[in-house]
């Protein structure tokens, strides 16, 4: 078992579709398995970085080969993903969510197709494969999609931010993964990101929206039966583009965290109770923060902020110091123009890892946790053109989280299975 960073040497030649044994003196033997259509071929000596390996044993079966070559910045012998399998979607898809919408215990894909003015549903056909999308018309330029049961019927509904129509659409689930036509609710100009969570402790999920051109966030309280009250708007900084809602100060009331793209900061609006919020407190981050996630990454039971800094080519981590205050960001280099970030344990070590969609590099970066809220260098996986949104869910029921990415420039969805 190896628990520290190390480098090993691969000697001579080994090819694809073959189990290979790598040695280094005074270090335990490490096994790495390469599958058919793999691009890993070494001639003579090659250096391979091994980062935070807990344990790896070669499997006895070979996954089905896929279609896109994988490139890595750092090669890890644990928690790797297979090459993406792609599924056609709409034109310039912009946001993706993954949840079981037809009650068959298999996560389905929901995508906002920005230039098609619709949302697409790709039902899980089993084993991590998906049916062709079924589309539902929404407003103009849907830019964000969220899924939650908003009418207490135990069926997840779709909430979409229609950035070109200045409204929020709610599509109620009719059962079996089909949906009613949207009902719309007006918000401020250019709603770009939506989150759904109960903010006033009435057991009904509410809608929170970042309005890019209005410099506001909107809160639409759930009036019951999937109907929402008119918005209450709160002023934030320039060009709010991404919003998350999590209790950051341990008072059992969800707070709003917003990425302010034009001000290079993150705003925190603490919940005062009954679904109202204080004015924001801001924390400086990198250039053009475009996506925010809020998860405890250092196991201290306090949620931390993870931000994609589009103009800085970094992700920033702001650790929670308690009472809803945060340390200055620590940054980690990723690809060109990281545009979407999520956090999940992808290698089963009970540590939260960062997954980023690198828009300008046409890849997804995975930064494995090094412990205590620090992260290793990214490993990259090639996807299609302009990945713009990333989600993580176990789509093939093997208890390992997989990556789902919306490739805006290629009008497709990529699914990278974890093996």
From TrEMBL:
Keyword Signal: yes
Key words, A-Z: Signal
Family matches, as InterPro entries: FG-GAP, Integrin_alpha_N
SUPFAM superfamilies, per database record: Integrin alpha N-terminal domain (SSF69318)
Name used for this protein in its record: Uncharacterized protein
The organism's taxonomic lineage, starting at the top: Eukaryota, Metazoa, Spiralia, Gnathifera, Rotifera
